[in-house]
Amino acid sequence: MRLNSAAAVAARKGPRRATHLRRYENLTAFAFLALNFIGYLLFKLIPILLALILSFTKWNFVSGISGVKLIGLENYARLFSDPVFITSFINTIVYAIALVPVSIFLALVLGVVLNEYVFGKGLLRLAFYLPYISSMVAVSIVWMVLFIPAYGPINTFLTNIGISHPPRWLNGSNSSLISIIIVGVWQSLGYNIIIVLAGLQGIDRSLYESAEIDGANVIRKFFSITIPSLSNTMFFLVMISFIRSFQVFTSVQVMTQGGPGNSSSVLVYYIYITAFEQSDIGYASAMSWVLFLLVFIFAIVRNATRSNQN
Amino acid sequence: MMGYMRKKLISKIVLTILMVALSITMLIPFAWMLSASFKPENQIFDVPVSWFPKTPIFKNYVAVWNSTVPFYIFFLNSIKVSTLCVIGEVVTSALAAYAFAKIEFRAKEFIFWVYVATLVFPLQMMLIPRFVLFRLTHLYNTHWALILPGMFTAFGTFMLRQFFQTIPDELSQAAKIDGAHHFMIFRKIIIPLALPAFSALIIFQFVTSWNDYVSPLVYLRSESLATIPLGLKFFQDENSVSYGAVMAASVCSLIPIFAVFLAFQRQFVAGIAMSGIKQ
Asked: What is the pLDDT of residues A143-196, one digit of tens each?
Protein backbone atom coordinates (compact mmCIF):
# COMPACT_ATOMS: atom_id res chain seq x y z
CA MET A 1 0.00 0.00 0.00
CA ARG A 2 2.78 2.45 0.88
CA LEU A 3 4.60 1.39 -2.21
CA ASN A 4 1.68 2.32 -4.40
CA SER A 5 0.89 5.61 -2.77
CA ALA A 6 4.52 6.49 -3.33
CA ALA A 7 4.18 5.32 -6.91
CA ALA A 8 1.06 7.39 -7.45
CA VAL A 9 2.87 10.49 -6.38
CA ALA A 10 5.92 9.43 -8.38
CA ALA A 11 3.90 9.53 -11.58
CA ARG A 12 4.17 13.28 -11.48
CA LYS A 13 7.82 13.39 -10.49
CA GLY A 14 9.81 12.20 -13.46
CA PRO A 15 10.47 9.54 -16.09
CA ARG A 16 12.44 7.17 -13.87
CA ARG A 17 9.68 7.02 -11.32
CA ALA A 18 7.15 6.59 -14.11
CA THR A 19 8.96 3.47 -15.34
CA HIS A 20 8.91 2.20 -11.81
CA LEU A 21 5.19 2.78 -11.64
CA ARG A 22 4.62 1.02 -14.92
CA ARG A 23 6.54 -2.00 -13.75
CA TYR A 24 4.53 -2.01 -10.56
CA GLU A 25 1.27 -1.87 -12.55
CA ASN A 26 2.45 -4.71 -14.77
CA LEU A 27 3.26 -6.92 -11.80
CA THR A 28 -0.03 -6.15 -10.11
CA ALA A 29 -1.95 -6.91 -13.28
CA PHE A 30 -0.22 -10.26 -13.68
CA ALA A 31 -0.94 -11.09 -10.04
CA PHE A 32 -4.62 -10.42 -10.67
CA LEU A 33 -4.54 -12.46 -13.85
CA ALA A 34 -2.35 -15.33 -12.67
CA LEU A 35 -4.96 -17.65 -11.20
CA ASN A 36 -7.34 -17.33 -14.08
CA PHE A 37 -4.59 -17.55 -16.64
CA ILE A 38 -3.12 -20.78 -15.28
CA GLY A 39 -6.53 -22.43 -15.40
CA TYR A 40 -7.15 -20.98 -18.80
CA LEU A 41 -3.86 -22.35 -20.06
CA LEU A 42 -4.40 -25.83 -18.63
CA PHE A 43 -8.05 -26.30 -19.48
CA LYS A 44 -8.50 -24.25 -22.60
CA LEU A 45 -5.36 -23.37 -24.55
CA ILE A 46 -3.56 -26.68 -24.08
CA PRO A 47 -6.69 -28.70 -24.90
CA ILE A 48 -7.20 -26.66 -28.07
CA LEU A 49 -3.64 -27.40 -29.15
CA LEU A 50 -4.04 -31.03 -28.19
CA ALA A 51 -7.23 -31.27 -30.22
CA LEU A 52 -5.33 -29.98 -33.21
CA ILE A 53 -2.44 -32.41 -32.78
CA LEU A 54 -4.73 -35.37 -32.16
CA SER A 55 -6.61 -34.68 -35.36
CA PHE A 56 -3.45 -35.57 -37.31
CA THR A 57 -3.00 -38.88 -35.55
CA LYS A 58 -4.41 -42.34 -35.54
CA TRP A 59 -4.91 -43.32 -31.98
CA ASN A 60 -6.97 -45.90 -30.21
CA PHE A 61 -6.95 -44.72 -26.65
CA VAL A 62 -6.64 -48.24 -25.28
CA SER A 63 -3.15 -48.60 -26.78
CA GLY A 64 -1.65 -45.89 -24.55
CA ILE A 65 0.56 -42.97 -25.54
CA SER A 66 3.00 -45.19 -27.42
CA GLY A 67 0.17 -46.12 -29.78
CA VAL A 68 -0.12 -42.60 -31.21
CA LYS A 69 0.64 -42.58 -34.93
CA LEU A 70 0.98 -39.43 -37.01
CA ILE A 71 -0.99 -39.82 -40.20
CA GLY A 72 -1.14 -36.26 -41.53
CA LEU A 73 -4.42 -35.25 -43.09
CA GLU A 74 -5.80 -38.76 -43.45
CA ASN A 75 -8.51 -38.22 -40.84
CA TYR A 76 -9.76 -35.17 -42.70
CA ALA A 77 -9.75 -36.99 -46.00
CA ARG A 78 -11.73 -39.82 -44.45
CA LEU A 79 -14.56 -37.42 -43.54
CA PHE A 80 -15.60 -37.02 -47.15
CA SER A 81 -16.15 -40.72 -47.72
CA ASP A 82 -17.80 -41.52 -44.41
CA PRO A 83 -21.56 -41.78 -45.02
CA VAL A 84 -22.39 -41.60 -41.30
CA PHE A 85 -20.39 -38.41 -40.95
CA ILE A 86 -22.08 -36.89 -43.98
CA THR A 87 -25.52 -37.84 -42.67
CA SER A 88 -24.70 -36.45 -39.24
CA PHE A 89 -23.38 -33.25 -40.76
CA ILE A 90 -26.48 -32.77 -42.90
CA ASN A 91 -28.76 -33.56 -39.97
CA THR A 92 -26.98 -30.93 -37.89
CA ILE A 93 -27.52 -28.33 -40.58
CA VAL A 94 -31.16 -29.34 -41.03
CA TYR A 95 -31.69 -29.19 -37.29
CA ALA A 96 -30.28 -25.66 -37.12
CA ILE A 97 -32.05 -24.36 -40.22
CA ALA A 98 -35.40 -25.69 -39.03
CA LEU A 99 -35.10 -24.76 -35.37
CA VAL A 100 -33.63 -21.27 -35.54
CA PRO A 101 -36.28 -19.45 -37.60
CA VAL A 102 -39.21 -21.18 -35.93
CA SER A 103 -37.95 -20.59 -32.42
CA ILE A 104 -36.94 -16.99 -33.05
CA PHE A 105 -40.14 -16.08 -34.84
CA LEU A 106 -42.22 -17.52 -32.02
CA ALA A 107 -40.05 -15.79 -29.44
CA LEU A 108 -40.42 -12.46 -31.22
CA VAL A 109 -44.21 -12.64 -31.34
CA LEU A 110 -44.53 -14.02 -27.81
CA GLY A 111 -41.96 -11.56 -26.47
CA VAL A 112 -43.81 -8.56 -27.87
CA VAL A 113 -47.13 -9.82 -26.51
CA LEU A 114 -45.64 -10.70 -23.12
CA ASN A 115 -43.97 -7.31 -22.91
CA GLU A 116 -47.16 -5.29 -22.64
CA TYR A 117 -50.29 -6.69 -24.17
CA VAL A 118 -51.29 -9.14 -21.42
CA PHE A 119 -52.23 -9.31 -17.73
CA GLY A 120 -50.02 -11.36 -15.44
CA LYS A 121 -46.83 -10.99 -17.48
CA GLY A 122 -44.56 -12.40 -14.80
CA LEU A 123 -46.49 -15.61 -14.34
CA LEU A 124 -46.98 -16.18 -18.06
CA ARG A 125 -43.29 -15.67 -18.79
CA LEU A 126 -42.46 -18.27 -16.19
CA ALA A 127 -44.23 -20.93 -18.24
CA PHE A 128 -41.88 -20.28 -21.13
CA TYR A 129 -38.76 -20.08 -18.98
CA LEU A 130 -39.25 -23.39 -17.17
CA PRO A 131 -38.38 -25.63 -20.13
CA TYR A 132 -35.22 -23.62 -20.69
CA ILE A 133 -33.90 -23.95 -17.15
CA SER A 134 -34.76 -27.65 -16.95
CA SER A 135 -31.99 -30.09 -17.64
CA MET A 136 -32.19 -31.45 -21.16
CA VAL A 137 -31.90 -34.99 -19.80
CA ALA A 138 -35.05 -34.67 -17.72
CA VAL A 139 -37.13 -33.07 -20.45
CA SER A 140 -35.85 -35.52 -23.05
CA ILE A 141 -36.92 -38.41 -20.86
CA VAL A 142 -40.39 -36.94 -20.49
CA TRP A 143 -40.76 -36.22 -24.20
CA MET A 144 -39.66 -39.77 -25.00
CA VAL A 145 -42.65 -41.07 -23.09
CA LEU A 146 -44.98 -38.48 -24.58
CA PHE A 147 -43.81 -39.51 -28.05
CA ILE A 148 -44.35 -43.27 -27.64
CA PRO A 149 -46.09 -44.15 -30.95
CA ALA A 150 -48.45 -46.95 -29.89
CA TYR A 151 -49.89 -45.68 -26.63
CA GLY A 152 -48.12 -42.40 -25.77
CA PRO A 153 -50.29 -39.41 -24.89
CA ILE A 154 -49.47 -37.42 -28.05
CA ASN A 155 -50.56 -40.11 -30.45
CA THR A 156 -53.54 -41.05 -28.30
CA PHE A 157 -54.62 -37.44 -28.57
CA LEU A 158 -54.03 -37.33 -32.33
CA THR A 159 -55.98 -40.55 -32.85
CA ASN A 160 -58.83 -39.14 -30.78
CA ILE A 161 -59.13 -36.04 -32.93
CA GLY A 162 -59.38 -38.24 -36.00
CA ILE A 163 -55.84 -38.64 -37.32
CA SER A 164 -55.72 -42.32 -38.17
CA HIS A 165 -52.01 -42.65 -38.93
CA PRO A 166 -50.12 -40.37 -36.57
CA PRO A 167 -46.34 -40.11 -37.02
CA ARG A 168 -44.11 -42.63 -35.31
CA TRP A 169 -42.09 -39.74 -33.88
CA LEU A 170 -38.77 -40.88 -32.43
CA ASN A 171 -39.25 -44.39 -33.79
CA GLY A 172 -39.68 -43.41 -37.43
CA SER A 173 -36.69 -42.66 -39.60
CA ASN A 174 -38.65 -39.88 -41.33
CA SER A 175 -39.83 -38.27 -38.14
CA SER A 176 -37.02 -38.78 -35.61
CA LEU A 177 -35.13 -35.60 -36.49
CA ILE A 178 -38.34 -33.57 -36.59
CA SER A 179 -39.25 -34.84 -33.14
CA ILE A 180 -35.88 -33.71 -31.82
CA ILE A 181 -36.39 -30.32 -33.47
CA ILE A 182 -39.79 -29.96 -31.76
CA VAL A 183 -38.21 -30.58 -28.37
CA GLY A 184 -35.40 -28.16 -29.28
CA VAL A 185 -37.86 -25.38 -30.16
CA TRP A 186 -39.87 -26.01 -27.02
CA GLN A 187 -36.76 -25.79 -24.89
CA SER A 188 -35.02 -22.88 -26.59
CA LEU A 189 -38.05 -20.57 -26.59
CA GLY A 190 -37.40 -19.39 -23.04
CA TYR A 191 -33.90 -18.18 -23.80
CA ASN A 192 -34.99 -16.42 -26.96
CA ILE A 193 -37.90 -14.72 -25.20
CA ILE A 194 -35.55 -13.42 -22.50
CA ILE A 195 -33.29 -11.89 -25.13
CA VAL A 196 -36.23 -10.41 -27.06
CA LEU A 197 -37.65 -8.90 -23.87
CA ALA A 198 -34.25 -7.43 -23.00
CA GLY A 199 -34.07 -5.94 -26.49
CA LEU A 200 -37.56 -4.48 -26.14
CA GLN A 201 -36.54 -2.68 -22.94
CA GLY A 202 -34.03 -0.74 -25.00
CA ILE A 203 -36.63 0.75 -27.37
CA ASP A 204 -37.45 4.39 -26.78
CA ARG A 205 -41.07 4.57 -25.58
CA SER A 206 -41.60 7.95 -27.19
CA LEU A 207 -41.38 6.32 -30.62
CA TYR A 208 -44.57 4.40 -29.86
CA GLU A 209 -46.27 7.43 -28.37
CA SER A 210 -45.67 9.58 -31.41
CA ALA A 211 -46.77 6.73 -33.67
CA GLU A 212 -49.99 6.45 -31.68
CA ILE A 213 -50.63 10.15 -32.09
CA ASP A 214 -50.18 9.60 -35.82
CA GLY A 215 -52.82 6.89 -35.56
CA ALA A 216 -50.66 3.83 -36.15
CA ASN A 217 -52.27 0.56 -35.10
CA VAL A 218 -50.62 -2.35 -33.29
CA ILE A 219 -49.54 -4.17 -36.45
CA ARG A 220 -48.14 -1.00 -37.98
CA LYS A 221 -46.18 -0.22 -34.81
CA PHE A 222 -44.81 -3.76 -34.74
CA PHE A 223 -43.44 -3.57 -38.28
CA SER A 224 -42.37 0.08 -38.32
CA ILE A 225 -40.89 0.43 -34.84
CA THR A 226 -40.42 -2.86 -33.03
CA ILE A 227 -38.83 -4.89 -35.81
CA PRO A 228 -36.34 -2.21 -36.98
CA SER A 229 -35.38 -1.32 -33.40
CA LEU A 230 -34.80 -4.95 -32.58
CA SER A 231 -32.68 -5.70 -35.62
CA ASN A 232 -29.42 -5.87 -33.66
CA THR A 233 -30.93 -8.07 -31.01
CA MET A 234 -32.49 -10.34 -33.61
CA PHE A 235 -29.26 -10.63 -35.51
CA PHE A 236 -27.40 -11.59 -32.38
CA LEU A 237 -30.12 -14.10 -31.57
CA VAL A 238 -29.97 -15.72 -34.99
CA MET A 239 -26.19 -16.12 -34.80
CA ILE A 240 -26.11 -17.44 -31.25
CA SER A 241 -29.00 -19.81 -32.00
CA PHE A 242 -27.19 -21.29 -34.95
CA ILE A 243 -24.06 -21.68 -32.86
CA ARG A 244 -26.00 -23.48 -30.14
CA SER A 245 -27.93 -25.62 -32.59
CA PHE A 246 -24.73 -26.91 -34.15
CA GLN A 247 -23.86 -28.28 -30.71
CA VAL A 248 -27.07 -30.24 -30.21
CA PHE A 249 -26.25 -33.45 -28.39
CA THR A 250 -28.12 -34.34 -25.21
CA SER A 251 -31.59 -34.66 -26.74
CA VAL A 252 -30.19 -36.99 -29.40
CA GLN A 253 -28.13 -39.05 -26.99
CA VAL A 254 -31.03 -39.51 -24.58
CA MET A 255 -33.98 -39.88 -26.96
CA THR A 256 -32.75 -41.68 -30.09
CA GLN A 257 -29.04 -42.51 -29.92
CA GLY A 258 -28.96 -41.18 -33.44
CA GLY A 259 -31.51 -43.71 -34.67
CA PRO A 260 -33.44 -45.30 -36.18
CA GLY A 261 -30.47 -46.10 -38.40
CA ASN A 262 -28.59 -42.81 -38.51
CA SER A 263 -31.70 -40.76 -39.21
CA SER A 264 -31.21 -38.49 -36.22
CA SER A 265 -27.46 -38.67 -35.76
CA VAL A 266 -25.86 -35.24 -35.42
CA LEU A 267 -22.28 -34.03 -35.50
CA VAL A 268 -21.56 -33.92 -31.78
CA TYR A 269 -23.29 -37.24 -31.23
CA TYR A 270 -21.15 -38.90 -33.90
CA ILE A 271 -18.02 -37.29 -32.43
CA TYR A 272 -19.02 -38.65 -29.03
CA ILE A 273 -19.61 -42.17 -30.34
CA THR A 274 -16.41 -42.18 -32.37
CA ALA A 275 -14.25 -40.90 -29.53
CA PHE A 276 -15.70 -42.61 -26.50
CA GLU A 277 -17.34 -45.76 -27.78
CA GLN A 278 -15.11 -46.63 -30.71
CA SER A 279 -12.03 -45.05 -29.09
CA ASP A 280 -11.03 -43.51 -32.41
CA ILE A 281 -9.65 -40.36 -30.82
CA GLY A 282 -7.84 -39.01 -33.87
CA TYR A 283 -10.76 -39.26 -36.25
CA ALA A 284 -13.16 -37.80 -33.70
CA SER A 285 -10.77 -34.88 -33.18
CA ALA A 286 -10.75 -34.16 -36.90
CA MET A 287 -14.55 -34.12 -36.82
CA SER A 288 -14.52 -31.74 -33.90
CA TRP A 289 -12.68 -29.24 -36.10
CA VAL A 290 -15.55 -29.40 -38.55
CA LEU A 291 -17.83 -28.46 -35.66
CA PHE A 292 -15.45 -25.66 -34.82
CA LEU A 293 -15.51 -24.39 -38.38
CA LEU A 294 -19.32 -24.19 -38.37
CA VAL A 295 -19.35 -22.32 -35.07
CA PHE A 296 -16.45 -20.13 -36.11
CA ILE A 297 -18.09 -18.89 -39.31
CA PHE A 298 -21.15 -17.70 -37.41
CA ALA A 299 -19.09 -16.18 -34.62
CA ILE A 300 -17.02 -14.24 -37.17
CA VAL A 301 -20.10 -12.88 -38.90
CA ARG A 302 -21.52 -11.86 -35.55
CA ASN A 303 -18.36 -10.10 -34.44
CA ALA A 304 -17.82 -8.41 -37.78
CA THR A 305 -21.24 -6.82 -37.69
CA ARG A 306 -20.79 -5.91 -34.05
CA SER A 307 -17.68 -3.89 -34.76
CA ASN A 308 -19.48 -2.24 -37.69
CA GLN A 309 -22.11 -0.99 -35.30
CA ASN A 310 -19.60 0.55 -32.93
CA MET B 1 -61.08 7.99 -26.95
CA MET B 2 -63.37 5.88 -24.78
CA GLY B 3 -63.81 3.44 -27.65
CA TYR B 4 -60.08 3.23 -28.12
CA MET B 5 -59.47 2.42 -24.46
CA ARG B 6 -62.17 -0.21 -24.48
CA LYS B 7 -60.78 -1.77 -27.64
CA LYS B 8 -57.37 -1.88 -26.01
CA LEU B 9 -58.77 -3.54 -22.91
CA ILE B 10 -60.67 -6.15 -24.89
CA SER B 11 -57.65 -7.02 -26.98
CA LYS B 12 -55.59 -7.30 -23.83
CA ILE B 13 -58.09 -9.71 -22.33
CA VAL B 14 -58.24 -11.79 -25.51
CA LEU B 15 -54.45 -11.94 -25.73
CA THR B 16 -54.18 -12.89 -22.08
CA ILE B 17 -56.56 -15.80 -22.59
CA LEU B 18 -54.61 -16.86 -25.67
CA MET B 19 -51.30 -16.68 -23.83
CA VAL B 20 -52.66 -18.59 -20.86
CA ALA B 21 -53.72 -21.36 -23.24
CA LEU B 22 -50.27 -21.33 -24.85
CA SER B 23 -48.38 -21.35 -21.60
CA ILE B 24 -50.47 -24.29 -20.39
CA THR B 25 -49.51 -26.11 -23.58
CA MET B 26 -45.87 -25.35 -22.83
CA LEU B 27 -46.25 -26.85 -19.38
CA ILE B 28 -48.09 -30.03 -20.42
CA PRO B 29 -44.93 -32.16 -20.42
CA PHE B 30 -44.23 -31.14 -16.82
CA ALA B 31 -47.83 -31.71 -15.77
CA TRP B 32 -47.86 -35.11 -17.40
CA MET B 33 -44.59 -36.04 -15.71
CA LEU B 34 -45.85 -34.94 -12.31
CA SER B 35 -49.16 -36.72 -12.71
CA ALA B 36 -47.57 -39.97 -13.95
CA SER B 37 -45.12 -40.01 -11.06
CA PHE B 38 -48.05 -40.51 -8.64
CA LYS B 39 -49.75 -43.26 -10.62
CA PRO B 40 -49.40 -47.04 -10.59
CA GLU B 41 -47.84 -48.36 -13.77
CA ASN B 42 -51.12 -49.64 -15.27
CA GLN B 43 -52.84 -46.25 -15.10
CA ILE B 44 -50.13 -44.08 -16.59
CA PHE B 45 -51.35 -44.36 -20.18
CA ASP B 46 -55.06 -44.32 -19.37
CA VAL B 47 -57.29 -42.62 -21.90
CA PRO B 48 -58.46 -39.97 -21.32
CA VAL B 49 -55.56 -38.75 -19.21
CA SER B 50 -56.54 -38.32 -15.58
CA TRP B 51 -54.40 -35.38 -14.60
CA PHE B 52 -55.17 -35.79 -10.93
CA PRO B 53 -54.81 -39.44 -9.91
CA LYS B 54 -57.73 -40.43 -7.65
CA THR B 55 -55.51 -42.24 -5.19
CA PRO B 56 -52.01 -40.87 -5.56
CA ILE B 57 -49.31 -43.37 -4.71
CA PHE B 58 -45.78 -42.73 -3.51
CA LYS B 59 -44.30 -46.05 -4.53
CA ASN B 60 -42.42 -44.42 -7.42
CA TYR B 61 -40.71 -41.94 -5.15
CA VAL B 62 -39.76 -44.74 -2.80
CA ALA B 63 -38.20 -46.54 -5.77
CA VAL B 64 -36.20 -43.43 -6.60
CA TRP B 65 -34.99 -43.21 -3.03
CA ASN B 66 -34.06 -46.91 -2.94
CA SER B 67 -32.36 -47.20 -6.32
CA THR B 68 -28.89 -48.74 -6.79
CA VAL B 69 -27.38 -45.40 -5.97
CA PRO B 70 -29.91 -43.39 -3.94
CA PHE B 71 -30.90 -40.14 -5.55
CA TYR B 72 -29.71 -37.96 -2.70
CA ILE B 73 -26.12 -38.95 -3.59
CA PHE B 74 -26.61 -37.27 -6.96
CA PHE B 75 -27.93 -34.17 -5.20
CA LEU B 76 -24.92 -34.01 -2.93
CA ASN B 77 -22.59 -34.49 -5.90
CA SER B 78 -24.35 -31.76 -7.86
CA ILE B 79 -24.30 -29.36 -4.95
CA LYS B 80 -20.61 -29.97 -4.39
CA VAL B 81 -19.62 -29.66 -8.04
CA SER B 82 -21.80 -26.66 -8.88
CA THR B 83 -20.90 -24.74 -5.73
CA LEU B 84 -17.17 -25.21 -6.17
CA CYS B 85 -17.38 -24.36 -9.86
CA VAL B 86 -19.25 -21.15 -9.17
CA ILE B 87 -17.04 -20.04 -6.26
CA GLY B 88 -13.92 -20.75 -8.25
CA GLU B 89 -15.21 -19.04 -11.33
CA VAL B 90 -16.38 -15.92 -9.55
CA VAL B 91 -13.07 -15.48 -7.73
CA THR B 92 -10.78 -16.14 -10.69
CA SER B 93 -12.95 -14.21 -13.15
CA ALA B 94 -13.38 -11.21 -10.91
CA LEU B 95 -9.63 -10.86 -10.33
CA ALA B 96 -8.83 -11.22 -14.02
CA ALA B 97 -11.69 -8.93 -15.03
CA TYR B 98 -10.35 -6.24 -12.70
CA ALA B 99 -6.95 -6.40 -14.36
CA PHE B 100 -8.51 -6.12 -17.81
CA ALA B 101 -10.85 -3.30 -16.85
CA LYS B 102 -8.87 -1.16 -14.44
CA ILE B 103 -5.11 -1.71 -14.81
CA GLU B 104 -2.90 -0.60 -17.65
CA PHE B 105 -0.31 -3.28 -18.35
CA ARG B 106 1.82 -4.64 -21.11
CA ALA B 107 0.22 -6.79 -23.80
CA LYS B 108 -3.21 -6.18 -22.26
CA GLU B 109 -4.95 -5.87 -25.60
CA PHE B 110 -3.29 -9.00 -26.91
CA ILE B 111 -4.04 -11.16 -23.87
CA PHE B 112 -7.62 -10.00 -23.83
CA TRP B 113 -7.94 -10.68 -27.52
CA VAL B 114 -6.75 -14.27 -26.96
CA TYR B 115 -9.34 -14.70 -24.22
CA VAL B 116 -12.13 -13.46 -26.42
CA ALA B 117 -10.95 -15.45 -29.41
CA THR B 118 -11.05 -18.71 -27.50
CA LEU B 119 -14.63 -18.06 -26.36
CA VAL B 120 -15.47 -19.35 -29.81
CA PHE B 121 -14.36 -22.88 -28.96
CA PRO B 122 -17.46 -24.76 -27.87
CA LEU B 123 -17.45 -27.00 -24.81
CA GLN B 124 -17.99 -30.00 -27.05
CA MET B 125 -14.65 -29.34 -28.70
CA MET B 126 -12.86 -29.53 -25.39
CA LEU B 127 -14.26 -32.95 -24.50
CA ILE B 128 -11.73 -35.13 -26.27
CA PRO B 129 -8.50 -33.29 -25.33
CA ARG B 130 -9.66 -32.78 -21.74
CA PHE B 131 -10.61 -36.44 -21.54
CA VAL B 132 -7.11 -37.35 -22.67
CA LEU B 133 -5.53 -34.94 -20.18
CA PHE B 134 -7.69 -36.20 -17.33
CA ARG B 135 -6.82 -39.80 -18.13
CA LEU B 136 -3.12 -38.98 -18.12
CA THR B 137 -3.29 -37.00 -14.86
CA HIS B 138 -5.68 -39.42 -13.11
CA LEU B 139 -8.30 -36.74 -12.72
CA TYR B 140 -10.60 -38.93 -14.84
CA ASN B 141 -13.53 -40.27 -12.85
CA THR B 142 -13.10 -37.70 -10.07
CA HIS B 143 -15.16 -34.61 -9.38
CA TRP B 144 -12.10 -32.50 -10.12
CA ALA B 145 -12.57 -33.26 -13.80
CA LEU B 146 -15.83 -31.31 -13.58
CA ILE B 147 -14.80 -28.67 -11.07
CA LEU B 148 -11.42 -27.55 -12.42
CA PRO B 149 -12.49 -26.59 -15.96
CA GLY B 150 -15.60 -24.95 -14.52
CA MET B 151 -13.51 -22.75 -12.26
CA PHE B 152 -11.74 -20.99 -15.09
CA THR B 153 -13.97 -19.65 -17.77
CA ALA B 154 -13.23 -16.90 -20.23
CA PHE B 155 -16.95 -16.18 -20.25
CA GLY B 156 -17.09 -15.03 -16.62
CA THR B 157 -14.01 -12.88 -17.09
CA PHE B 158 -15.49 -11.31 -20.17
CA MET B 159 -18.87 -10.60 -18.60
CA LEU B 160 -17.43 -9.09 -15.40
CA ARG B 161 -14.93 -7.00 -17.33
CA GLN B 162 -17.77 -5.48 -19.34
CA PHE B 163 -19.49 -4.59 -16.10
CA PHE B 164 -16.39 -3.26 -14.32
CA GLN B 165 -15.76 -0.96 -17.24
CA THR B 166 -19.05 0.78 -16.59
CA ILE B 167 -17.81 1.76 -13.11
CA PRO B 168 -16.33 5.25 -13.44
CA ASP B 169 -12.55 5.46 -13.10
CA GLU B 170 -12.85 8.61 -11.01
CA LEU B 171 -13.84 6.48 -8.04
CA SER B 172 -10.67 4.38 -8.12
CA GLN B 173 -8.52 7.42 -8.97
CA ALA B 174 -9.70 9.16 -5.83
CA ALA B 175 -8.97 6.08 -3.75
CA LYS B 176 -5.51 5.83 -5.34
CA ILE B 177 -4.65 9.36 -4.33
CA ASP B 178 -5.71 8.43 -0.80
CA GLY B 179 -3.12 5.68 -1.00
CA ALA B 180 -5.25 2.64 -1.80
CA HIS B 181 -3.58 -0.10 -3.82
CA HIS B 182 -5.33 -2.17 -6.46
CA PHE B 183 -6.50 -4.98 -4.27
CA MET B 184 -8.09 -2.53 -1.89
CA ILE B 185 -9.85 -0.71 -4.72
CA PHE B 186 -11.02 -4.05 -6.02
CA ARG B 187 -12.37 -5.09 -2.63
CA LYS B 188 -13.77 -1.81 -1.36
CA ILE B 189 -15.02 -0.13 -4.51
CA ILE B 190 -15.46 -2.53 -7.39
CA ILE B 191 -16.97 -5.53 -5.61
CA PRO B 192 -19.71 -3.60 -3.78
CA LEU B 193 -20.67 -1.73 -6.94
CA ALA B 194 -20.67 -4.87 -9.05
CA LEU B 195 -22.90 -6.95 -6.80
CA PRO B 196 -25.73 -7.13 -9.35
CA ALA B 197 -23.29 -8.46 -11.95
CA PHE B 198 -21.94 -10.98 -9.46
CA SER B 199 -25.33 -12.29 -8.49
CA ALA B 200 -26.31 -12.59 -12.14
CA LEU B 201 -23.13 -14.49 -12.95
CA ILE B 202 -23.48 -16.74 -9.91
CA ILE B 203 -27.04 -17.79 -10.67
CA PHE B 204 -26.45 -18.16 -14.38
CA GLN B 205 -23.35 -20.30 -13.92
CA PHE B 206 -24.92 -22.32 -11.14
CA VAL B 207 -27.80 -23.33 -13.37
CA THR B 208 -25.46 -24.02 -16.29
CA SER B 209 -23.19 -26.16 -14.17
CA TRP B 210 -26.11 -27.93 -12.51
CA ASN B 211 -27.60 -28.91 -15.86
CA ASP B 212 -24.33 -29.87 -17.54
CA TYR B 213 -24.72 -33.39 -18.80
CA VAL B 214 -22.01 -33.95 -21.35
CA SER B 215 -19.02 -33.28 -19.07
CA PRO B 216 -20.01 -35.82 -16.39
CA LEU B 217 -21.01 -38.24 -19.14
CA VAL B 218 -17.51 -38.13 -20.59
CA TYR B 219 -15.31 -37.61 -17.52
CA LEU B 220 -17.04 -39.90 -15.03
CA ARG B 221 -17.55 -43.64 -14.96
CA SER B 222 -18.74 -44.40 -11.42
CA GLU B 223 -22.43 -44.02 -10.85
CA SER B 224 -21.79 -42.92 -7.27
CA LEU B 225 -19.98 -39.83 -8.57
CA ALA B 226 -22.74 -38.79 -10.99
CA THR B 227 -24.35 -35.38 -10.80
CA ILE B 228 -28.12 -35.12 -11.19
CA PRO B 229 -28.46 -35.15 -14.99
CA LEU B 230 -26.14 -38.13 -15.36
CA GLY B 231 -27.64 -39.83 -12.32
CA LEU B 232 -31.08 -39.44 -13.85
CA LYS B 233 -29.81 -41.06 -17.05
CA PHE B 234 -28.34 -43.96 -15.09
CA PHE B 235 -31.64 -44.36 -13.28
CA GLN B 236 -33.55 -44.33 -16.56
CA ASP B 237 -31.24 -46.93 -18.09
CA GLU B 238 -31.81 -49.22 -15.11
CA ASN B 239 -35.58 -48.68 -14.84
CA SER B 240 -36.55 -48.08 -18.46
CA VAL B 241 -39.65 -50.24 -18.14
CA SER B 242 -40.95 -48.49 -15.06
CA TYR B 243 -42.32 -45.21 -16.41
CA GLY B 244 -43.73 -44.08 -13.08
CA ALA B 245 -40.39 -44.39 -11.33
CA VAL B 246 -38.55 -42.64 -14.18
CA MET B 247 -41.06 -39.78 -14.06
CA ALA B 248 -40.66 -39.54 -10.29
CA ALA B 249 -36.89 -39.36 -10.74
CA SER B 250 -37.32 -36.60 -13.34
CA VAL B 251 -39.52 -34.65 -10.94
CA CYS B 252 -36.89 -35.02 -8.22
CA SER B 253 -34.17 -33.86 -10.59
CA LEU B 254 -36.10 -30.73 -11.57
CA ILE B 255 -37.37 -29.55 -8.18
CA PRO B 256 -34.11 -28.06 -6.87
CA ILE B 257 -33.36 -26.09 -10.02
CA PHE B 258 -36.93 -24.80 -10.21
CA ALA B 259 -36.61 -23.67 -6.61
CA VAL B 260 -33.33 -21.88 -7.32
CA PHE B 261 -34.83 -20.29 -10.39
CA LEU B 262 -37.96 -19.07 -8.62
CA ALA B 263 -35.86 -17.60 -5.83
CA PHE B 264 -33.44 -15.82 -8.16
CA GLN B 265 -35.42 -15.35 -11.33
CA ARG B 266 -34.52 -11.69 -11.71
CA GLN B 267 -30.79 -12.31 -11.38
CA PHE B 268 -30.95 -15.25 -13.76
CA VAL B 269 -32.79 -13.30 -16.42
CA ALA B 270 -30.38 -10.40 -15.97
CA GLY B 271 -27.47 -12.81 -16.39
CA ILE B 272 -28.82 -14.10 -19.67
CA ALA B 273 -29.61 -10.64 -20.93
CA MET B 274 -26.08 -9.55 -20.02
CA SER B 275 -24.56 -12.52 -21.76
CA GLY B 276 -26.63 -11.79 -24.80
CA ILE B 277 -26.99 -8.08 -25.32
CA LYS B 278 -23.71 -6.74 -24.06
CA GLN B 279 -21.44 -9.26 -25.69
From this structure: 998 999 888 889 888 988 888 888 899 999 899 999 999 999 999 999 999 999
Q: Which residue of A has its CA nearest to B25?
A: A127
What pTM was estimated for this model as a whole?
Answer: 0.89
pLDDT in tens, B181-200: 888 888 888 888 888 888 88
**What separation in angstroms does the CA of B240 have from each of B61, B64, B69, B236?**
15, 13, 16, 5
Q: How far is CA A240 from CA A301, B120, B131, in A?
A: 11, 11, 26
In this structure, of A136-140, A220-224, A306-310, the range with the lowest mean pLDDT score is A306-310
B-chain residues near A88 (CB < 8 A): none
Mean of all residue pLDDT scores within chain A: 87
Amino acid at the residue A119: F
Q: What length does chain B have?
A: 279
Partners of B92 on chain A (C-beta within 8 Å) are 35-36, 39
- Among the CATH numbers 2.40.50.180, 1.10.287.3510, 3.90.1150.10, 1.10.3720.10, which is that of B68-277? 1.10.3720.10
Give B265's contacts in chain A (Cβ within 8 Å).
126, 129
H helix and E strand count, chain B: 15, 0
CATH 1.10.3720.10 placement within chain B: 68-277
Helix axes B228-238, B243-263, angle to 10 degrees: 170
Is B45 close to A3, i.e. CB distance below 8 A?
no
Q: Is the alpha carbon torsion for A296, A280, A75, A67 positive or negative? A: positive
Q: Is B138 left (phi over 0), alpha (psi -120 to 50) or beta?
A: left
Q: Which residues pair with A57 in a beta bridge?
A: A70
Helix (H) or strand (E) holding A57: strand A57-58
